[in-house]
Design brief:
The structure holds two protein chains of two kinds.
Chain A lengths: L13 H30 L2 E3 L2 E3 L7 E6 L4 H5 L6 E5 L2 E2 L3 H8 L7 E7 L16 E7 L1 E3 L4 H23 L4 H20 L7 H27 L21 H10 L3 H24 L5 E2 L2 E2 H24 L3 H32 L5 H5 L4 H13 L4 H32 L4 H4 L3 H28 L1 H18 L4 H16 L4 E6 L5 E3 L2 E6 L4 H9 L3 E2 L10 H13 L1 E9 L2 E9 L9 H47 L10 E8 L7 E8 L2 E11 L3 H21 L3 H15 L5 E9 L4 E7 L5 E3 L7 E2 L20 E4 L5 E5 L1 H4 L10 H10 L6 H16 L8 E8 L1
Antiparallel strand pairs in A: 1-8, 2-3, 3-4, 4-5, 4-6, 6-7, 9-10, 11-12, 11-16, 12-13, 14-15, 15-16, 17-26, 18-19, 19-20, 20-21, 21-24, 22-23, 22-25, 25-26
Chain B lengths: L4 H26 L8 H15 L3 H14 L4 H9 L3 H13 L6 H14 L3 H14 L4 H13 L3 H14 L4 H14 L2 H14 L5 H12 L3 H14 L4 H14 L2 H14 L3 H18 L3 H13 L7 H18 L3 H22 L10 H13 L3 H12 L8 H21 L2 H14 L7 H19 L1
Helix pairs in contact in B: 2-3, 3-4, 4-5, 4-6, 5-6, 6-7, 7-8, 8-9, 10-11, 11-12, 12-13, 12-14, 13-14, 14-15, 15-16, 16-17, 17-18, 18-19, 19-20, 20-21, 21-22, 22-23, 22-24, 23-24
The chains are: A alpha+beta, B mainly alpha.
């Protein structure tokens, strides 16, 4: 059964990810553009009346505050009054005011029509009015942005750049994306929301953007903490332990819904704008909407709810995450967020709204710096990116570049001083020319500085590069699998400074076997192998999905966890998993960062290739050895068969051997005697095939040969030989037949041990017959002691004796029917008068016809003896 | 030479823009709201409208005349000039405009009809035409103002406010609307709201005299005489011949109890007024009334002869004769010839009724004889015929129509005051106090009625004294 899914880190596919990433950049830079426009608006001088208006008034400009010592304050327009007209035109809204103020210059005295008390509710004629007066206001040239706003803007940009930084480094990571969005909204909140209204066209846009950020921020905030540091999962829909009943469907659905599902997130994002729009509609209908600090009270209430939920989620993570380090980091962020937001809520919102004073707003904003700082701290500790490295690098390189520029500037000044009085020095092109000359030097110097700087300040990364180079060199040329494995584990452990590294290597049977622990194996069908192969990069052991379908994968994962391994690195080459590298925790306790993973990935690729090469080399060597062995055995066998047939007057011989494999186990030979006209004929068949059979054949022949020299009696010879053969190798025995031909007496004395009885074809006998069998025909080597007997027969002229091994009679056709001795006799008898070679070819042809192309089952050895 | 694609597209876009601008210019040029072939005439007409809105009627007349000179067939200039001319010219110009009907747009034709209705004194047709204009052309300020004024006159304030609201939706900075609204509240005695709206008016038109004058008028009729005089002077500082300010200063001085200054201002107003009918004669009539009230018969005669010397429209001969008889009767009263005065007033009444019935035909307004009642009541009271004066005063104090301006409200005020005095003398102090209390809601101290108030106070004292005895 196939596995269900891979590691649980939420990422986007390649195809959809890049377009979505693009949209995030668009949103981010749009937010940045608006923020920059807002700041420009705040800090550029323009005619200003010192009135901070309420943003939602539609029947006049309700004075939320008059900036101290500002034009409105000097003209006696207090907070709470309503400006009904500016510059001889009635105004109903901020945009009307903006239009009017644009017509004037700084210093102009502009009449304001001011009503005592709040603006009319509906603006309809007939609505009760109030005391109105015309007040001259001299417009001043103030920049709206003050210390508080500057600080808020810095905070906002700090957020933005931290978020951008994280997003650039991990654009495919969902939590990084949400974090970026959160930071953009914080930017907009600080820069666009916490600013006084300025009456200019951009103000409406910026203020509305700030308002949008106000009600999006809680949703994104909550979203982020629902997925950071890992997606929230609820588990309350359990099977009943007693009855085994499945949980109710609604419960399962609810669990799925609450576990940071897309539906939940859609709902979270939908609620704030719906609430806001409802308030807007109420206002348009003419209902009074409670406003707090420029936004409807309901929006603030919702913000508070979301903030509480987000903090609750974070607190939950801080207390329940399995990893102690992660719990610590979540706790830090939790504390930082609390300390950053509570003062603002109190001093920046509640106090000004209740007591109509902005005096303490700045003190409410100051602690908010804790939020981006704690986030940044968490990022560093979580190692979402190696911010230490980047910050150090960026800072260091910036300093280096600045120093070099300083040198360059000094050089320019010195050159100017030196050449001041000369003609080249007075030329306008002198500096440009000097720049061209110095630039290559500048670049050269900078590059020369780079390596020592890296070595000095980024030792670990420098080590990595060196280590990578060394390891690559070491393993690329290595063909010993064991050495590769040992080197890998040792080098990685040393470079990354980890407790231990272990490696599983692919064996010939396809299993992955752990180096140094042969019983720890992973079968080819284990799902974890497919997953790792597909992943192709380092994976945390914890992230290996729990949805394995097979016990072997589960067992493997469990073993890794039990032994404390943290990271597994697949060694894959061309879609084949050559091995698995498992790493324990770093000695420093730090997590594996991007650079570590990059190093491991590079090494893994190279190692897989090296392993594949080593395996191939192993296989090739083995094949070569095997071939060599076979060739040797063949040579041995070929050399031990008689090169030529003996010449015995009155007798003709013909023989041959067709082995079933490259090397066969049958033989035949002639044993001549120096002082004896008799001739020994031996024919044999060894059990087994290939090289071992062949070697036993050689040994058996030598045994018989040496015994034959001293013992002429076939039976006795066999007894002695049997003992010897028995002692060579048990469970391997030899079928032999020994025939002693006495040409003088025309006798043939023989003993047979396991061989088929030779066939005698005597003219005039009517047909072929078997030679008389001895009493005891056991193969040699089967038992220690066997009493072999000797038989004797007398030959006549024209006799043909066919000696053969059982390969002839046992040649099988495709239906496993043997050729049989009857057929053999028939084949022999039909060719009685033919030459020996022709008889042999004819029998073999008949056998080939019988087997019909089936593989030769056994060796076929034969010998013809004809009495001429 | 082949241009790059981007350049070609840019060229196309620019050409389209230029064409669009040209079309817009041509369209705008030809799509004026009035039928005239002359740009200059059009500009002069626009200027005339603007001056009219500012109540700078002399300047408006000059502008309309110039427009007509530049385009003799400019119908709307004829109508504008008619509005700012004496009756004979009004009739002639309106007829001339009617002859141009076939050339005119529907909007212009309706304005001609409205002007004709006004000349015909057909109030109903006048208002109906204004309503048609307002329904079809909600941006038409004049029609909207006529309609709103008509709603105010009939007491339908919600409808009037709705019209003002629609007007302000179209033109948020329509200062005239706030002027009208301010007056409305002023007539009702809601001084604060009146001031609020008039301050808006003043704010929107700080360089115009009328805002200050309107404020001055309301203040004058509300008892804030010094403020009124100050504002009227501001108006006159902006426009030295703004005759209404003289009128309103006259009212203020009347209220203060300085008849000589009042008369002086009224006379000055008559000198500065652009129109005879409803302008100069009216101002002199005010002065005449003050003189009569002060029993200054000699001055009254002078003023009467001045009025007699002024040209008037022949169609108003009947009213003119009535006026002469009326003023003669009032002089007789001032000179102590009470019987003669009474006879003269009684004789003039039927003729006056006949004229009034013609004037009020087609309207829902009922005749209100405030002036006649006041004069006769005064004479009868001088003659000791208090009981006969009471019904006259009751009529004055309880007008059949809602007052349409301060002057008509003033008659109510004075009627109440005199009635209060009579009732007090008869012993009905409660009712007298109520009448005076109603008056004080509008104006806490109006000099012409001081005598009556003092008399009531005296009755109270005597009652208290009697009670204590």
């Amino acid at each position: 059964m196939e596995g269900v899914s891979g590691p649980s880190r939420p990422t986007d596919t390649q195809e959809g990810g890049s377009s979505l990433r693009g949209w995030f950049y668009v949103v981010g830079f749009l937010g940045l553009a608006i923020a920059v426009a807002s700041i420009a608006d705040m800090f550029s001088p323009r005619p200003y009346d010192g009135i901070v208006p309420m943003p939602y008034s539609r029947t006049g400009i309700e004075v939320r505050a008059a900036t101290p010592r500002g034009p409105a304050a000097r003209a006696g327009i207090p907070a709470g009054d309503c400006v009904l007209g500016i510059g001889n035109h009635l105004v109903n809204s901020i945009s009307d005011a903006s239009t009017e103020l644009r017509k004037h210059k700084v210093g102009d005295t502009v009449p304001y029509l001011v009503r005592r008390g709040p603006c009319p509710q509906t603006g309809r004629i007939g609505e009760p009015g109030g005391e109105v007066r015309i007040v001259p206001v001299q417009l001043s040239s103030e920049r709206l942005g003050g210390t508080t706003y500057l600080y808020a803007a810095i905070l906002g940009f700090l957020f933005f750049f931290i978020g951008l930084f994280v997003f650039r480094k991990r654009p495919e990571d969902r939590s990084a994306r949400i974090f970026f969005l959160l930071c953009v909204l914080f930017l907009l909140f600080f820069v666009c929301r916490l600013r006084p209204a300025s009456y200019w066209w951009i103000d409406v846009f910026v203020q509305n953007t700030g308002t949008v950020s106000l009600f999006l921020l809680p949703a994104v905030f909550l979203h982020f903490f629902l997925i950071f540091p890992r997606p929230k999962e609820f588990h309350f829909a359990h099977r009943d332990e007693w009855s085994g009943e499945e949980p109710p469907r609604w419960k399962t659905r609810l669990q799925t819904f609450l576990s940071a599902s897309p539906s939940l997130l859609y709902l979270l994002y939908a609620i704030p704008p719906v609430v806001f729009l409802y308030d807007v509609m109420r206002q348009l209908r003419g209902d009074r909407v409670s406003i707090l600090s420029g936004a409807p009270l309901s929006s603030w209430a919702l913000l508070g709810d979301y903030l509480i939920l987000g903090l609750a989620s974070l607190a939950h993570s801080a207390f329940t995450l399995p990893d102690a380090r992660e719990r610590r980091q979540a706790f830090h962020v939790f504390v930082g967020t609390i300390l950053g937001t509570i003062p603002y809520l109190f001093l920046g919102i509640i106090l000004p709204s209740a007591f109509n004073t902005d005096e303490y707003v700045f003190y409410g904003i100051v602690p908010m710096i804790l939020i981006p700082l704690t986030f940044a701290y968490a990022i560093v500790r979580f190692q979402m990116l190696n911010i230490q490295f980047v910050v150090r690098r960026t800072f260091l390189y910036a300093i280096t570049t600045a120093i070099l520029f300083g040198f360059y500037a000094i050089a320019i000044a010195a050159a100017n001083a030196l050449f001041k009085r000369s003609r080249p020095g007075s030329s306008a092109l002198f500096n440009f020319g000097f720049f061209l000359v110095v630039l290559p030097l500048f670049e050269f110097l900078r590059r020369r500085l780079q390596t020592p700087l890296d070595k000095l300040f980024f030792r670990d990364k420098f080590d990595y590069q060196t280590a990578l180079l060394e390891m690559s060199e070491a393993i690329t040329g290595e063909l010993d699998l064991g050495k590769i494995a040992d080197y890998l584990t040792a080098s990685i452990a040393g470079t990354l400074r980890i407790e231990k590294a272990s490696i599983w290597l692919r064996e010939r049977d396809g299993w992955l076997e752990r180096r140094g622990k042969r019983e720890d194996r992973v079968p080819p069908h284990a799902v974890v192998r497919r997953i790792l192969r597909q992943e192709g990069k380092p994976v945390r052991v914890e992230d290996l999905s729990v949805y394995f379908a097979d016990p072997e994968s589960e067992g493997f994962r469990a073993r890794l966890l039990e032994e404390g391994f943290r990271l597994v690195v697949p060694l894959a080459y061309r879609d084949r998993l050559m091995g698995i590298l498992a790493l324990k925790e770093k000695l420093s306790g730090e997590r594996f960062d991007r650079d570590d993973e990059a190093l491991l990935s590079t090494l893994a690729n190279q190692s897989a290739l090296a392993i594949e090469t080593a395996l191939l080399h192993d296989e090739m060597t083995r094949q070569a050895e095997l071939k060599r062995d076979l060739e040797i055995a063949r040579d041995i066998q070929t050399s031990l068969l008689p090169r030529s047939l003996p010449v015995v007057p009155g007798f003709s011989f013909f023989g041959g051997s067709l082995p079933a494999r490259v090397v066969g186990g049958d033989f035949y030979d002639f044993i001549p005697f120096d002082d004896d006209p008799r001739l020994g004929i031996v024919i044999g068949d060894v059990s087994g095939k290939s090289v071992p059979a062949s070697l036993l054949m050689v040994a058996s022949k030598e045994i018989v040969y040496s015994r034959a020299l001293t013992t002429r009696d076939p039976g006795l010879l066999f007894q002695e030989s049997n003992r010897r053969i028995y002692s060579i190798k048990r469970r391997m025995f030899v079928s032999l037949g020994y025939f002693l031909l006495d040409p003088d007496s025309m006798s043939l004395r023989y003993s047979i041990g396991g061989q088929p009885l030779p066939i005698l074809l005597r003219p005039g006998d009517g047909g072929p017959t078997f030679l008389e069998p001895p009493e005891n025909r056991l193969p040699l080597g089967a038992f220690r002691e066997v009493a072999y007997d000797t038989k004797e027969m007398f030959l006549r002229r024209g006799d043909l004796i066919f000696f053969y091994t059982d390969g002839f009679s046992e040649a099988m056709d495709p239906a496993m029917n043997p050729f049989g001795e009857d057929r053999l006799m028939t084949s022999l008898s039909t060719r009685q008068g033919a030459p020996l070679e022709d008889i042999a070819q004819g029998i073999l042809a008949d056998i080939r016809g019988h087997v019909s192309g089936a593989e030769q089952y056994d060796d076929m050895t034969f010998l013809f003896l004809r009495v001429e | 030479m082949r241009f790059p694609r981007a350049v070609r597209w840019a060229g196309v876009v620019l050409l389209l823009l230029a064409a669009g601008v040209a079309v817009a210019v041509v369209y705008t040029k030809n799509n004026r709201e009035v039928t005239t072939s002359s740009d200059e005439a059009y500009q002069a007409w626009r200027q005339g409208l603007e001056n009219e809105r500012r109540f700078y009627f002399k300047e408006a007349r000059v502008d309309f005349a110039r427009a007509l000179q530049l385009d003799p067939q400019f119908a709307m200039a004829m109508i504008g000039l008619a509005r700012n001319s004496e009756k004979p010219q009004q009739i002639a110009l309106t007829r001339r405009a009617s002859r141009e009907r076939n050339r005119l747009s529907e909007h212009e034709r309706l304005h001609v009809d409205m002007q004709q209705a006004m000349l015909d004194m057909d109030q109903k047709r006048y208002v109906e035409t204004a309503r048609k204009i307002h329904e079809k052309y909600p941006n038409d300020i004049r029609a909207a103002m006529v309609l709103a004024r008509q709603q105010i006159d009939t007491g339908k304030m919600d409808d009037a406010f709705q019209i003002f609201g629609e007007l302000l939706a179209v033109e948020p900075n329509n200062a005239d609307a706030y002027n009208q609204i301010g007056y409305y509240y002023g007539y009702r005695g809601d001084y604060d709201r009146a001031i609020e709206n008039l301050k808006k008016y003043q704010f929107m038109a700080p360089d115009q005299a009328n805002p200050y004058d309107s404020l001055g008028e309301i203040q004058a009729y509300s008892g804030r005489y010094d403020e009124a005089i100050a504002n009227c002077r501001k108006a006159l500082a902006l426009k030295s011949d703004f005759f209404e300010s003289f009128n309103h200063m006259g009212v203020a001085y009347e209220g203060k109890g300085e008849p000589a200054a009042a008369i002086e201002n009224y006379v000055r107003a008559s000198q500065e007024s652009a129109m005879y009918d409803g302008g100069r004669i009216e101002s002199l009539m005010r002065a005449f009334r003050v003189a009569v009230s002060a029993d200054d018969a000699a001055l009254a005669r002078q003023l009467m002869s001045k009025m007699g010397a002024m040209p008037h429209d022949k169609s108003f001969d009947e009213q003119y004769e009535i006026g002469k008889a009326f003023t003669a009767a009032m002089i007789a009263g001032a000179e102590g010839r009470l019987d003669e005065a009474e006879k003269g007033l009684l004789a003039v009444r039927p003729k006056w009724e006949a004229v009034a019935s013609k004037q009020l035909k087609g309207t829902t307004r009922k005749p209100y004889w405030a002036t006649w009642n006041f004069s006769l009541a005064r004479i009868r009271m001088k003659a000791g015929k208090v009981e006969e004066a009471i019904p006259l005063l009751e009529e004055m104090a309880n007008p059949p129509n809602r007052w349409a301006d301060f002057e008509s409200r003033r008659w109510v005020y004075e009627g109440r005051a005199m009635l209060a005095e009579v009732l007090a003398r008869k012993g009905d102090l409660d009712r007298a106090d109520k009448l005076l209390a109603e008056n004080h809601k509008w104006n806490p101290s109006w000099a012409p009625s001081r005598t009556a108030e003092l008399a009531v106070a005296q009755m109270h004292r005597e009652k208290v004294q009697a009670a204590s005895r």
